[in-house]
Amino acid sequence: MSLTPPPACPAHSTQSTGLMPLSAAVGSGDPQAAYRRLRDEWGNVAKVELEPGVPAWLVLGYRELLTITRQEQLFSRDARNWRDLNDGLVPLHSGLLPMMAWRANVIGADGPEHRRLRMPLDNAVARMDQRRVRREVEALCTELIAEFSPRGRADLVNEYATIVPMLSLASLFGLDTTEGRELLDALIALFGSADNSQSGNRNFEQIILDTVRERRRNPTSDMTTAFVSDPNLHNEAEHLQSVVVMISAGNETVTAWISHTLRLMLTDPRFAARLRGGRLGIDDALDEALWRDPPMNNMPARYALHDTELGGHVIQRGDCLILGLCGANDDPAIRPGSDEESWGNRAHLAFSAGPHVCPAQVPARLITRTAVQTALHLLPDMRLSIPAEEVTWRPSPWTRVPVSLPAEFSASRIATGIRR
């Protein structure tokens, strides 16, 4: 596992800080209400608990979030600056580390090093054949729906939204269906930041490493080969981590984005009527979902390089700051007054901001748009099988993905002409 631990691990505290656990906010029925309570108590920068005994600042203000994402000279992405990790408050076995510990990749770098490692990601996305990818994703979506449509019911998360992005990304990077499903299981564990997070990370990286080594021996036209052959990447570790970033950034978030858009279709009659009636275009619908419930509710992290002030609070050197993307989207200083005012407005922070803005926005939107459009076309009368308030969420302080989304629809047989 390519995580860099602190040099020593003194006794750590497992005592709760008395602060709101971040995972409780993400997993609540109304996370925006939880973030509003935090804003009422603390202002635009609130103290929260990442795991028992581990505090952090949650940045809920839109302008404050732009400040910490744009000022690399003060707020670093390099977790080796995290005081609580270096002091041993965060144990080596912590489930936070696969998401938060430093890695030798674009996420953990600042300045010129970040720009060098970022260039291969941007180049790979720019070379992507979007028409071919859209056709392949549409064929995959059609096939998945054809498998469950004769039953007249399905779990639109576990039988659809979780499978589409991983198998689509696996195909882009030259992995087969079995490897794609293994990656999916590993990533669910990794993003959960719980006891199985580190083992999930090890499994995830081993599958990618095997593919990287195979492409070095036998190059193809896939994106793994593009990274292996990119002159900006200097060694196997950088090849590995570049693929890790793209797949991890693209999978969990797209699963959440597809799920949330379909959930709005099934639970919000006004949203559904506007979309089905043509008053709301598909991309506007996708962006409304991002405003309301961004896939990454919270994004780790920035680390203060000097004592400073933010949102009326003293931030000390080494403090951890979490990007509260959902809370910042709901900042009353910038939030549109109504859903209609957000149509066509992409000023949301669902993809973060600054130099570390998400590198996978283009494939993410392409896959999500295709998955939602295909479901709307092939399952026009789908409806939720349970009350909306009974939808529950996978445990995570970061991503907000429904445990399931059981739906019913008219049973039908859909011809695909595809054999996998």
UniProtKB/TrEMBL annotation:
PROSITE patterns: CYTOCHROME_P450. Residues 1-25 are annotated as: Disordered. InterPro entries: Cyt_P450_B (IPR002397), Cyt_P450_CS (IPR017972), Cyt_P450_sf (IPR036396). CDD domains: CYP_unk (cd20623). Belongs to the cytochrome P450 family. This is Cytochrome P450.
